[in-house]
Amino acid sequence: MKTNNFISACLLMLSATLFICLSGQLYAQQQLSPGDSATAIIGKTEVKIKYFSPAVRDRQIWGNVVEYDKVWRTGANNATILEVSRPVKIEGKTVPAGKYALFTIPRSGGTWTVILNKTWDQWGAYNYDENQDVHRFEVKPKKEIELSENLKFYVNNRGNVKFEWEYLSFDFDVKPSR
Question: What is the Cα–Cα distance from 146 to 149, expressed in whole angstroms?
Answer without folding.
Answer: 9
